[in-house]
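QA checklist item 7 of 12: single-chain prediction sanity check.
[x] sequence parsed
[x] length recorded as 544
[x] structure emitted
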Amino acid sequence: MCLPKSVLFIVFFFTSLLSISQNNDNINSRDLSYLTTGGKLLPLQAIIDIRHYSIVVDVDIANKSIKASTEVSLNLSEKTDTILLDLIHLYTVTKIKVNNKTVAFNQHDDKIYITSATGFIVGNQKVMIEYNGIPPVAVKPPWNGGFTWSKDSKGNDWMSINIQAEGGKMYFPCKDHPSDEPNEGADLKITIPKGLVVAGPGLLMSVTTKNDKSTYYWKTNYTISNYCIVFNIGKYTVVKDEYTTILGNKVPIEYYVLEVDVDKAKKVIELKKRDTKILEKYFGEYPWVKEKIGIGEVPNSGMEHQTMITFDNKFTYRQVGGQEYSDNLFHEYAHEWWANKVTNKDWGHMWIQEGIATYAEALAMYELGGEEAYSQMIDGHKRGSKNRKPIVPGEVVTEAEVYAGGDIYLKGSFFMHSLRYVIGDDIFFPTLKKLATDPKTTYDNFVTTSDVEKLFSAAAGQNLKPFFDFYLRTTNSLDLSVKQIGFQKYQIKIINFFMPLPMEVMANGQTSRIVIPNDGIIVNSTLPPQVDAKGFYLKKITVQ
């Protein structure tokens, strides 16, 4: 998700969201502020493995409603009399078939209970659900999502969907949990008024027009997060180009830009090519070479939708090292690696996606503006870390819980900077690239904080778990003591951490990298030594 313009907004919004619990007495209202995704996986959904979604939607823009059907291909690991899927209560389900046979169902509490007297056997089940209704309108997209119905400057209809905070159930039946994605991808067939265009994930397979309507058929063969299975509608022109990846593969670039803004497209595409080179340098080849590098112009802040990153910064850029740069465009693009390719098993580990994508921005600063630009951004991340709650609050939490406070962005990024210092560039950067490229941690395979820690520990040849736990699972910062114990003699000790850590210590006008053991070190210095003056750690120092 995009890094908000104000960290204070994150704190306010997600703290407010956390404080709201679902009120079943109000379940028939259009107030969806209680919605989130993730949390404890229900037993009826734990036995489901989603294989594929095929979503067909007829969008009635005039009435801001949809008529739809979704086929869910899933595998059951156990026989069950009930298949449980998620869909918000604003839609009316009219018919359900399982393996082409009409079945009974009950719709309540934003869920669909599909039942069979004889039971559903182990193995593949194809569940076809027909439904219709008025989708929720986004209040503050993309952070508070839903459908955004808008007009471009020429009065043409313009619509976007953002559902990360609330989940895929905002418009299609699904197993709405981050631990399960459709391994065989998703199909979207979206029907809209003739003359408009649909931008979607994957590859555009066909466009058919009949009477006053057009149907766009989008298909992705890669695994994909529920919240990335979305589409945008507008009076788009598709501006195309091509990019040759670091491994020599040619990938189409497709920018779905409003007709009124087509003169701005070339610059965006050139920035996209440059940004791709930066990201490939650190994280490996662009992840979706069999599909496309997609960009969609939307009426709200950008989002990390797989192969169709959305973007809207009013085509304004800032200068970094004499080059134009967009924070929004780069951050969302970094999520193609950190979110879409490397994906958390649970929302509790969201810092991996948001924190490393934010750290990627600091690496972009280094590439464009050198060490000073990198250090300036990292210092901002350090100072912006609120440290009010652990950024890994647990192993099984909801999206709303983990986003509260916003530290998954800034503290997550600064943690990567600290880790880099602890183990050194020669280990840090190859290991970070391995995390982004190893089949064990990408695409169909999910990751947790423990997976990341074990990978870096193995590469460094030391147990980094105490370091990960200290900064990610607590709100602690290092408590350093610089104590004079004799004439021009000082003891430097870490009071609240029990793992040897390297520190930059300046004494007698010279700076050295010194490992501080558990019992501290003694330094001879005419003046009190300075410790970690460049700020590689979140810390406080007491000089005695």
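[x] summary fact logged: The first helix runs from residue 7 to 18.
[ ] second reviewer sign-off
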